[in-house]
Amino acid sequence: MATILSVSGSPSAHSRTARLLRHLDAGLASKGHHVVPFDVRTLPPEALLGADFAHPEIVRAKELFAQADAVMIGTPVYKAAYSGLLKSLLDLLPQYALAGKTVLPLATGGTTAHVLAIDYALRPVLSSMGAQHIVQGRFVLDRHITILEGGGVSLDAEAEKGLHQVVEQFEWALRPGAAYEVPAAA
Fold first, then answer.
1. Whose CA is closest to 17, among 144, 158, 169?
2. What is the Rg, in whole angstroms, of the alpha carbon atoms belonging to the chain?
3. Is the sign of the CA dihedral 105, 108, 111, 112 positive or negative?
4. Which has the closest alpha carbon to 69: 144, 179, 145?
5. Is 85 strand, coil or helix?
6. What is the C-alpha to C-alpha distance for residues 140 and 34, in angstroms, rounded to an integer?
7. Which helix (H) or strand (E) holds 155?
8. Which of 1, 19, 45, 117 lies in disulfide reach of 77, CB 3.0 to 4.6 Å?
9. What number of other Cβ atoms are within 10 A of residue 23's Cβ?
10. What are the b/e assignments for 4-18, b being 16+ CB within 10 Å?
C-alpha cells in the first residue's frame, strides 16, 4: 500500500481543515495505507518566514515529501486562495518536490464563493511542482463539518458523499499501473 503524507496548511490549532484531514487519514489507514499526518503550523515561524532552507524542521519536512508516494493537501481558503502558511512551506520545498506523486487537494471555507480556489490557486502550484497526477479536489463548507467532543468530526451527507468520491479516485490513482487504465464508472 501507499505512504501518504497528509498535509494541513491551516494556522489554527482547532482547524476544521486539520480535523477533516485526520478523519480522512483514519479511513485511508483502515484500508492499509501508511498515513503520515503533518501540520505545517508546527514548523518554526522564523524558519518559514525567514526561508531557512537548512533549518532541521524544514529539512525534515522536505524528507517527508520525498518519502511519500502520495500527498493529500488540505487548506482553509482565505481571500479566494490557499493559506499563506501553506504557501510559505511550498516555497521552501524543492521545485519538483511532487514529481512522481499523486496529489489530492482539499479546501475548507465559509462560502461557496471560494469553491474554485483549488482549481485557480492551488492546482497550478502543485502542477508546477511536478505532481504526476492531481486528482479532482474537493471544497467543503465549514458549516458541513461539525467538530465533535474528543476532536473528531461529523460531516453532513453531501460533504461525506463528495469526499468519499474524491478519496476513492485518489486511492484508485495510487494503484500500480492506474495511470494507464480508465477507472470504472461509479
1. 144
2. 16
3. positive
4. 179
5. helix
6. 24
7. strand 153-155
8. 117
9. 18
10. bbbbbbbbeeebbbb
pLDDT digits (tens, 9 = 90+) for 40-71: 999 999 999 999 999 999 999 999 999 999 99
Q: Spell out the long-range contacts of 61-67 with Cβ–Cβ below 8 A and sequence spacing 24 or more.
A: 61/89, 61/92, 61/93, 62/92, 62/93, 62/94, 62/97, 64/5, 64/36, 64/38, 65/5, 65/93, 65/97, 65/98, 66/97, 67/3, 67/5, 67/36
Residue type, 36: V
Q: Which residues pair with 82 in a beta bridge?
A: 77
Looking at every residue in the chain, the average pLDDT score rounds to 94
Burial of 38 by CB count in 10 Å (0-12 exposed, 13-18 middle, 19+ buried)?
buried
Number of other CB atoms surrounding residue 86 within 10 Å: 24
Q: What is the reported pTM?
A: 0.93
For position 176, what pLDDT does the model report? 78
- What is the amino acid identity at position 148? L
Place of cell 521552501: 92
